[in-house]
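Model: You mentioned two targets. I'll fold them one after the other.
Researcher: Yes, keep them separate.
Model: Target one:
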Amino acid sequence: MDANTLAPTRSPLTAGRLDLSLALDRVNQLQAELETLYGQAARLTQGRAGEGAMRAFNRGLLRLARILIPLNYVESDQFDQDAALGLPPLPLLGPVDRLGHLEPGSDAYYQHLTLLIRRRNAVCFALREAIEAARSTAAAMAAVISHG
């Protein structure tokens, strides 16, 4: 995931109507944390770490997968079923273009804006959780490597 993931949601139709700056900042922050984590993982492949570091890395990857896979591949929650159709990156924000086709100030506009704000908040929350997962995994691996 990188900043281009949010590119489809930055349409001229929605410019100034939905602030995605926090989501973009978190995508960039997650990218930096993942680079640190992958740097730690490179030490694993060079044989400089033991089994404890491998376990910490695997636990961290599972945690990240539980956060990022739903964020990237589903629009609904765990109790609904998404259609088996192509989805945009970050499907929760997929309907963002519809906002540009609604009359500003109308009930439909505000209802859709509220939906998108809630979904943006869900995306930002998931990204914050992923940042913490990557950061804590890298720290756990570093601790095991330095003591091992």
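Model: Target two:
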Amino acid sequence: MGDHGAPENRGGRGSGEIPLPGGGVLRTPAETEHDFGSTEVRFADVVQPFWLMALVALGVVPHPDSGQPQIDLARAREAIAVLELLRAKTSGHLDDAEQRLLDQALYELRMNYLGAQDRSGGA
């Protein structure tokens, strides 16, 4: 530890690493920026988690913990609402493929929501 309780830079001047008490290493921002910049994020990477979450909540895809279909209409509504918000906020800024993906996800989820609502006796 340094004089004021801060981790001491024992990695050498300019090494970019500061050992932390209890283990681990703190890397300087210049070193971590490279790690984050190497991954390309696509629009589908934003849509698909909410699409899948809704499909699981609608019982279309088995729940990962039980392996059985489970219906949770409230969770499905939340995921659909996020995708609707995403569509509203990105209106006019998506290319054709991105727009089709989002429209397809919302259409499929709404149709499955109605089916799940009927199967569960409403909500």
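Researcher: Noted. Anything on target two?
Model: Confidence is low (pLDDT under 50) at residues 1-13.
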